[in-house]
Amino acid sequence: MRLQWVLAVLVLVVPLVTAAAPDVALETWDPVQNTSEPYWINTAEFAVSSYNKHEKKNLVFESVVKGKTRYEVTGLYIVLVIKVKDGSLPSANYDVGVRDKYAGPNPLDLIYFRRRPKFW
Ligand SMILES: *[C@@H]1O[C@H](CO)[C@@H](O)[C@H](O)[C@H]1NC(C)=O
């Protein structure tokens, strides 16, 4: 009888708790307030130069469109949309993910770098 009560309470309460704590715990992103700040520019330039080096490309960084960050155990996870020029092609937006580990000679890691689908 006791166990049934416990189970009944769990069945009732667990969905309430998970529904009441929506994305707050998982989605604690802070928006980038000022995309002109040197920190974001440096991060974006790092992403472009890393990508160029690994992919043997010659993309040219233009600007940071927007971004957000999230604190993780391994450092600050930075997600940016950046505007990039590829030769004579029109500028295009790219999604980049960078981690700032804060320490060491190479604190930044490029996690991903991909062209944003058009009209997205
Ligand atoms: C954004 O940052 C740039 C570079 O640090 C600065 O010149 C500019 O005044 C800032 N803009 C705002 C609205 O704070």
Number of strands: 5
Mean pLDDT: 87
Q: Helix-strand pattern, N to C? A: HEHEEEE
The rounded distance between the terminal residues' Cα atoms is 55 Å
Parts with pLDDT < 50 across at least 5 consecutive residues: none
Q: How large a portion of the residues is in β-strands, by DSSP E?
A: 35-45%
Topology, element by element:
Blueprint: H1 2-20, E1 30-31, H2 38-55, E2 60-72, E3 75-85, E4 92-100, E5 108-115
Antiparallel strand pairs: 1-2, 2-3, 3-4, 4-5
The chain binds 2-acetamido-2-deoxy-beta-D-glucopyranose (NAG).
Question: What this model shows, in words?
Answer:
InterPro entries: Cystatin_dom (IPR000010), Cystatin_sf (IPR046350). It comes from Prunus persica. Residues 33-101 form the Cystatin domain. GO terms for molecular function: cysteine-type endopeptidase inhibitor activity. This is Cystatin domain-containing protein. The chain is an alpha+beta fold and 120 residues long. The protein has a single domain (26-115), classed as Nuclear Transport Factor 2, Chain: A, CATH 3.10.450.10. It has helices at 2-20, 38-55; strands spanning 30-31, 60-72, 75-85, 92-100, 108-115. The protein has a five-stranded antiparallel sheet with strand order 1-2-3-4-5. Strand 3 (75-85) and strand 4 form a beta hairpin. The longest helix has 19 residues, at 2-20. It is elongated. It starts with a helix and ends in a 5-residue tail after the last strand. It binds 2-acetamido-2-deoxy-beta-D-glucopyranose (NAG). 2-acetamido-2-deoxy-beta-D-glucopyranose is lined by residues 34, 36-37.
